[in-house]
Amino acid sequence: MTESATAAGPLAGIRVFDMTLAMVGPWCAMNLGAMGADVIHIEPPTPRQMPGSERPGGGVPPSINGTSIGYISWNMNKRGLTLDMKAQEDRANAYELLKTCDVFLMNMRPDVAGRLGVDYETLSKINPGIVYCTVTGWGQEGPMRELPGADGQINHFTGMSTTNGVEGASEGELYRHSTQMDASTGNYATQAILLALVARKRTGRGQRIDMSMLRATTHLQPGRIGEYLARQTIGPRLGSAAQVVAPDRAFETGDTRQVAVAATSEAEWATFCDVIRKPELKDDPRFATNADRVDHRSELHAILEPVFKEYPLDYWVLQFRRNRLPYGWPMRWDELRYHQQVQDNGYMQLVPSTAPWGDVWTGGPPYRFSKTPERWFTTPQIGEHNDEILRELAEGRGSSTPAPAPTNAREA
Amino acid sequence: MTGPLFGYRVVELAEGVGGPYSAMLMGDAGADVVKVERAEGDRARGWGSKTAGDFGATFLVTNRNKRSVAVNLGTPEGLAAVKKLTDSADIVIVDAGWSDHPDLQPDAIIARNGQAVVLNISEFGHEGPLGDYPPYGELGAQMASEATMSLGVPGQPPVRVGVDIGSMYAGIYGLSATCAALIARDRVGGQRIDVSPFGCLVAMRSTLWAALSNPDEWWGFHLDSYLKPPDNGYHTKDGAVSFTLGRMTREQRDELYKDYDMEWVKDDPMFDLVDTDPGGSGSRYGWKVRPVWEKAFAKFTTAEVIEIGRRHGATTFEKNDYAQMINSPQVQHIGMVTSVEHPGIGPVQQLVPPWDFSDTPAEIRLPAPRLGEHTAEVLTEAGYAASEVASLKSSGVLVGA
């Protein structure tokens, strides 16, 4: 895990103009920064007027020492620059900076780019190599193009929330799944930008990418939506059970905890029956194949429920682990944070910072490069690198110079 | 015009959802993707219900734009064929079901092919006590990171996300990392990338981990903050909506209350919490006033709730099931669904690729392959003589067409 803080990430030499707000755009650029790009996060010098909050990060609660965790946790791996895009001098600086950038990223409604002078037409003239990515809620076209979109609304609009919940629950009882639609869209945007940078090696030009939360987050649900499109039927809510595999759910154990178990292939099903000491199930025609078990899910669950109540969680974990079958159990926050698996893989870390919010827990990055190490470092304070970046511009330094190597949190 | 990964060759040694989804996106992006399967086929071919037809849609929508080669991996000749394919690939995707074979471990592949970018998907991470976890960690990973902390009702059994998001995230992050490694390849050659569904799920919850660092206020996972229980959506007379007040003046809100026939709340100090609560309709405010809104919205149709809300500056949308979503004017307008012809099955509707490139468009060229549909074609391209392929087929080393 040790690596030199000066070893460059895979995107060393790539510079990103990160004109984003709230979560989707910042999250996307944060990942480019983790891979070594020099990400310059732009904030207006006076606080933005955001629906719901005037604070950076969408004002998402809670705050730490007054700053929204939204701003803190979605803007790591960046340098901070303030620019007033409506003021002439700042806009000129922006254009100078954009000449040295490889990527322009923005997540505002479709009409905003033109107003701020950063539409694709303008920027591609300044820099034909620029990969220009905009992220909107609902797309650049269509009757909903001008409407705002955020995580919760996209979750509900795309049907995602109808897939989650206790079996037979009514909608009001459901707990939805927060911030995954924002982060997922951000991840698809990261992917699109990187694909375009790969394409640029072949074509020699930049291009325009339109991402929408609507299109990205439906892609997160291909199996479920695929089942609907193929058969015009909508799968039920199944609590902890999977839709297309059985058995594949959590069961209560003898010590009133929950063990999650699955058999995802016919070979695993045979082993599963032996592990729970019910070998006769292997010859039961109702459970002959996975498709049969899915169709007789309720009968199967009725047989399995008392079985798992016979022994405590630890017994089942040992049995399933020993036989190389999938298993798991719900973890509390402290159990997860200090789990040996999380520690050994560095999946969660305390990112050191001298900013008012102090050291902050984060997950990620979730990828490890064997030769070009990823990195993770603290969020800049707003405008923290104004002098540094403007000085670099004045000295004519382009993006070919590797980005400064900040403290590598992984090593701290 | 061709996709951004045109010219790149991908070999997929993976099953289930994560690796195959990542490879499919590479195919959508124009890469030539060869899916290698064991003689019994990807286990996901059997996922789904029997009564719903003779195929599972999960497999069809995570394996388009690929060619399938099926081999008997237990034979030296079968293994040699797989090695030969990986030796000339730009990208190799390996998951836990394949990487336990010494010759197919990521580092072994790179030792033979120094230009290969190898995407290594383990279920819980390459290191640590669960480094040898069997293929398919979706359930365990979701349980560990999601089930008790964001879904489910306290004191009741856990609830998982309705889609295999852990595996999906591994595929999504995996593709991003792969592209980054392709960009760095000119500088450093091939390399290995490690991702896991578990690690991705932990990363995707970063907002919550930050929230737990040293927050100014915290009420616990189920009463904490932004958009949770209060933002489950609301029933209307004929459907359901999402609803957030957003940034509105006091006057706008009073007008809104009037039109929703709940004017009396103007004088309830509980409703003023929204001014000081940065979570908008979430957190303390939303949790407390939810029952009042529930009663109000139940008296209007979805269209009425949305019309009234938007007129006064609130953010409100339909809460859809898949049928309503697919048939919505917006989804229809931007053309998110396309039909893919599957030989022997007929047309299957599926979502178009997620990105919109102006210069290098993604496209769907091939339906999900039948098991071993392209065995002979791909191996002939790789340098095998037709007679050799035929003899390997008759001896059971190769499977399929």
Tell me what the structure shows.
- The complex is a heterodimer of chains A (412) and B (401).
- By secondary structure, chain A is α/β, with parallel strands linked by helices.
- Chain A is built from 16 helices and 14 strands.
- Chain A has helices at residues 24-34, 69-74, 88-99, 112-115, 120-126, 151-157, 180-203, 213-219, 222-231, 266-275, 290-295, 297-308, 313-322, 333-337, 340-345, 386-394, and strands at residues 15-19, 38-43, 63-64, 67-68, 79-82, 103-106, 131-136, 207-212, 248-252, 258-262, 327-328, 348-351, 360-363, 368-369.
- In chain A, the strands form 4 sheets. In chain A, strands 5-2-1-6-7-8 form a 6-stranded parallel beta sheet, sandwiched between helices. Chain A has a 3-stranded antiparallel beta sheet with strand order 9-10-11, covered by helices on one side. In chain A, strands 3-4 form a two-stranded antiparallel sheet.
- In chain A, helix 1 crosses helix 7.
- The relative contact order of chain A is 0.14.
- The model of chain A is unreliable at 1-6, 49-53 and 400-412 (pLDDT under 50).
- Chain B has a 7-stranded mixed beta sheet with strand order 6-5-4-1-2-3-13, with helices on both faces. Chain B has a 3-stranded antiparallel beta sheet with strand order 7-8-9, covered by helices on one side. In chain B, strands 10-11 form a two-stranded antiparallel ribbon.
- The longest helix of chain B has 24 residues, at 165-188.
- In chain B, helix 1 packs across helix 6 (165-188) and helix 6 (165-188) crosses helix 7 (197-204).
- In chain B, strand 7 and strand 8 form a beta hairpin.
- Chain B has 16 helices and 13 strands.
- Chain B is of the alpha/beta class and 401 residues long.
- Chain B starts with 8 loop residues before the first strand and ends with a strand.
- At the A-B interface, strand 3, helix 2, helix 6, helix 7 and strand 8 of A face helix 2, helix 5, helix 6, strand 6 and helix 7 of B.
